[in-house]
């Protein structure tokens, strides 16, 4: 069976590839949206922290023989703790300043983090095997479904929906949103707002590290692996709406699929289609698809 001259297995393979890429876009843009929406900081270091999660997992598996499943939890916790230090030592001083200061500060952090790992590992790829439990593929009738890629999509969607639920539907999420809008009022109820802000940033960067662990078996692990991806992720956040949690999730997954199908019908445009969509969306709706107009 063919659709527009493309066989169904080839079409579904590109759909899966788009979903995998979209899963990374969704988690990364979700972390950015959480940090910007609740802390009002444009975190350009997100790509470097994504890379950091992947390389820490490689280090744990290579040097200490720690399993992928343990590192899937440990790497985000380590990077999240590093994010807490960044927030406490650096970011807390610029919250009341223009967004440009946060952008420049996190850009500087990106250069420092990437430079440190590049000085140790260079720019060549690091070997990263798929966990034994997820090796191979499953026949689903119309195509062979790689087990690891299916796991990436499922894990990403579960984490994204859980994050959205906590922030939008729970009391903790209500405290977080209220704490960014009126911290003095929230502190009057006995809530430690500075600690809450610190942990929020740590959680946001932990999401980036989690995406890095998931991405490592399907994206070459190098100290520069976050550079190109983070530009696309910022475009995803802008299209979905700065600070919109659900907007980041849906837009990330959707643009991944669009990018995948573009590779089938017009491969030359696959690397620019996201930015073309961004320009169109900004012309029609400057706040983004799910953003709130001021």
Highlighted features:
294 residues, two-stranded antiparallel ribbon, mainly alpha, 70% helix, 3% strand
What does this structure look like?
It is a single chain. This protein has 294 residues and is mainly alpha-helical. It has a single domain (10-114, 128-284), classed as Orthogonal Bundle (ABC transporter involved in vitamin B12 uptake, BtuC). The protein has 11 helices and 4 strands. The strands form 2 sheets. A two-stranded antiparallel sheet has the order 1-2. A hairpin with a 4-residue loop joins β3 (137-139) and β4 (144-146). α2 (46-63) crosses α3, α3 (68-89) packs antiparallel against α8 (193-215) and α5 packs across α6. The longest helix is centred in the N-terminal third of the chain and has 32 residues, at 8-39. It is globular. 44% of the residues are buried.
The name of the CATH architecture is Orthogonal Bundle
Largest sheet: 2 strands, antiparallel
Annotation field: number of helices: 11
Work out the strand percent: under 5%
For the largest sheet, list the strands in their spatial order: 1-2
| End-to-end CA span | 49 Å
CA radius of gyration: 19 Å
CATH class wording: Mainly Alpha
Apparent shape? globular
The H-and-E topology, N to C, reads as: EEHHHHEEHHHHHHH
Number of domains: 1
CATH topology heading: ABC transporter involved in vitamin B12 uptake, BtuC
Would you tell me the overall average pLDDT? Answer: 85
Estimated helix fraction: over 70%
Secondary structure class reads mainly alpha
Regions with pLDDT < 50 over 5+ consecutive residues?
A: none
Beta strand count: 4
Keywords: Amino-acid transport, Cell membrane, Membrane, Transmembrane, Transmembrane helix, Transport
Main location: membrane
Membrane topology: Multi-pass membrane protein
Subcellular location: Cell membrane
